[in-house]
Amino acid sequence: MISIIFGKTKPINYIIVLSFLFVFYWLVHFSLFHKIYAPDQLIGQVLILAVLFFSIFVVNFIVKRNKITGTNSFPILFYALLTVIFPETLADSNAIFCSFFLLLASRRLVSMKSLKTIKFKLFDATLWVLVSTLFYDWAVLFLILVFAAIYFYQPKVTKNWLVPIAAVFTFFMITECVLVLSNNTDFWMRHYQFKFSPNMVYFSYWGHSTKLIFYTLGTLIIGLLAIIKLGKGNIGQVINMRLIALSFVLGIILNVLKLSDNVYPIMVTFFPAVVFFTKYIESIRRANIKEIILMASIALPFIVFFSSMALK
User: Fold this and answer.
1) Who contacts 281 (Cβ-Cβ below 8 Å, separation ≥6)?
2) How many domains does the chain have?
3) 42 in Cβ contact with 262 (< 8 Å)
4) Distance from C-alpha of 288 to C-alpha of 291, rounded to nearest angstrom
5) Structural domain of residue 103, as residue ranges?
6) What's the CA gap between 254 and 198, in Å, rounded?
């Protein structure tokens, strides 16, 4: 039943996923975190929710346009389910915005396999990564992903290595102009501190640490299996999977560096995770086994969610 519904790309799948996210988003804010918003603040939350919705479409666009996965809706389904496992990330607007701009950067990087307009794609990807650092300073780690893409595709073209530097200069000039006009020139020193001061009390709670460990190990194992199954037949797809795997590792590092009681950046890892989960589901040939795994994939997040709520 689940594979029949989400095994194809239909408008009803978007309606199901977006409707669920709409309800779950407000449930997390009002019931889990007991937040109260004034009318003007509520408008801001609606804007944040709209960015989250748009992220769903960007994820689907990336995987379909670059043929990373098959023609199904499993990526957006898994994206929504990951928010159930990590509901705290929905309360962190910076996580939603940072993840969104990193998605835009990933869109440009994975499209480099066509070997067309590579310099423009590198420039755009670098800019989007730098924009994401406005929300988390440690998101600058994702510049490693840009240089990895150069190394994988056209390492011998010297100009490619200079493009990110030009993008950094452009970002600095535009941002500095905005800061000067807004009389906020001390933003650089206040924001880009690159501190590593994780909340050990947060990590000591077994619910948080266990979820993160199992999520990380499970995703990496499934990703490794996906890369192995690709073999060497499609070099472009193999390279993209390597970039996606690197993106996941960088996201986990960012999560460890920034995670605290009020900061939940785990959403930056959702895109690579859903790609790996989808590739695994697609590799299952027996329909009954696939259905059982899909049912378990839907049930497990809710079990984790309600278990976490019961233990608080």
Assistant:
1) 74, 290, 293, 294, 297
2) 1
3) no
4) 5
5) 2-311
6) 11
Tokens 């020139």 identify what position? 185
**Residue 266 DSSP one-character state:** G
Q: Which of 148, 266, 164, 129 is nearest to 211 (CA)?
A: 266
Those residues with Cβ within 8 angstroms of residue 265's Cβ, 6 or more apart along the chain or in another chain: 89, 92, 94, 95, 98, 136, 251, 254, 255, 258, 259
272, 251 contact by CB (below 8 A):
yes
Tokens 């994820």 locate to: 59
* CA dihedral of residues 206, 31, 11, 280 (deg, nearest 10): 10
Model pLDDT for residues 145-186, shown as the tens digit of each residue: 999 999 998 889 899 999 999 999 999 999 999 999 998 888
Helices (H), the chain: 2-6, 11-27, 39-65, 74-85, 93-110, 118-132, 143-153, 158-181, 187-191, 200-204, 206-230, 235-258, 270-283, 287-311
How far does Cα 42 stand from its chain's mean position? Answer: 24
Spatial distance between the Cα atoms of 302 and 299, rounded to a whole number of angstroms: 6
Q: For residue 29, which amino acid is it?
A: H
Average pLDDT of the segment spanning 126-142: 96
Amino acid at 297: S
Q: pLDDT tens digits, residue range 113-127?
A: 888 899 999 999 999
